[in-house]
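User: Can you recover a sequence for this backbone? Please restate the input before giving your answer.

Assistant: Of course. Working from this structure:
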């Protein structure tokens, strides 16, 4: 009997505890369903700032009065403080210059953003001031060259035809006067390709110092690729004006690499070799210098590199 009475007592206590918990839960739901008016802070962070401008104090705070349910307020308070912020896009906010570096825009834009954040109506949100202000300073700027960075491996006989280029070929950078003045060019992220045998067109990002901004962040790079061949030409070795001498040998062979499409336009007249007579009284041989060659060729070598000579008495 005693055991049965004990079991009945435990069962009654458990039932009463469950009823209390259910009642507390219902009370909490009713309270959270009620509407409250509270004043809460929000951080304001400006985004889409023009590249030519800088907002030095981009961690402002605004106090907002919100009328909403306890459920939505609970979500607000459970959110980490660093996430209780709204982003104000300067592309969307209709701001205007007030004076010097001071700009303003309607608080209605902030109210709209907070309404989205709180999943509330804009009529349930208010701020003290109708106009919001922020400071924005113009940066130093200049235009610099863009240098494409490529890392290609080529099929046999193929190579670059000229330097890779970008579109656009220059960029306007913004920053402090010192940082801008110290920047002579900007480079792209490296474009890597293997077994290349045709032109390469690729879009890539600009590599920019963290202290700088730019009006664009990516460019299109064009690398023209051609097939090359090796060739050679025999040309006379010229003697500087005013010097009378015989050279042995009197001709030189120039070996070079040229793109197939340029092969037909290269001839003897494209090259010029001259004997260097600057130290002829101190040496038995004279160096041979290649003083003219097409810039669309790559010189492999010239033979001979030195020649013997005999001075002719006048």
């Amino acid at each position: 009997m005693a055991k049965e009475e004990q079991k009945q007592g435990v069962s009654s206590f458990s039932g009463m505890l469950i009823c209390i918990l259910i009642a507390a839960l219902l009370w909490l739901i009713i309270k959270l369903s009620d509407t409250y008016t509270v004043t809460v802070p929000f951080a304001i962070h400006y985004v889409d700032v023009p590249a030519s401008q800088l907002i030095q104090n981009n961690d402002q705070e605004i106090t907002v009065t919100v009328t909403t349910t306890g459920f939505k307020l609970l979500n607000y308070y459970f959110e980490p403080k660093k996430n209780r912020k709204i982003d104000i896009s300067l592309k969307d906010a209709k701001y205007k210059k007030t004076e010097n570096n001071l700009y303003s825009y309607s608080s209605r834009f902030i109210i709209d953003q907070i309404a989205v954040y709180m999943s509330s109506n804009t009529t349930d949100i208010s701020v003290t001031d109708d106009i919001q202000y922020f400071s924005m300073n113009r940066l130093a700027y200049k235009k610099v060259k863009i240098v494409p960075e490529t890392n290609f491996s080529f099929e046999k006989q193929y190579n670059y035809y000229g330097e890779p280029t970008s579109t656009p070929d220059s960029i306007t950078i913004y920053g402090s006067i010192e940082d801008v003045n110290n920047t002579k060019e900007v480079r792209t992220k490296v474009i890597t390709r293997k077994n290349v045998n045709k032109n390469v067109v690729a879009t890539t990002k600009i590599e920019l110092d963290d202290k700088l901004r730019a009006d664009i962040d990516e460019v299109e790079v064009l690398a023209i690729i051609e097939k090359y061949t090796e060739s050679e030409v025999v040309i006379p070795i010229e003697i500087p004006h005013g010097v009378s001498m015989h050279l042995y040998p009197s001709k030189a062979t120039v070996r070079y690499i040229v793109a197939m499409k340029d092969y037909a336009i290269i001839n003897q007249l494209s090259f010029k070799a001259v004997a260097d007579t600057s130290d002829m009284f101190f040496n038995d041989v004279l160096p041979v210098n290649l003083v003219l060659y097409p810039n669309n060729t790559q010189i492999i070598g010239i033979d001979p590199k030195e020649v013997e000579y005999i001075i002719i008495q006048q």
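That completes the design. The two ends are 148 Å apart (CA to CA).
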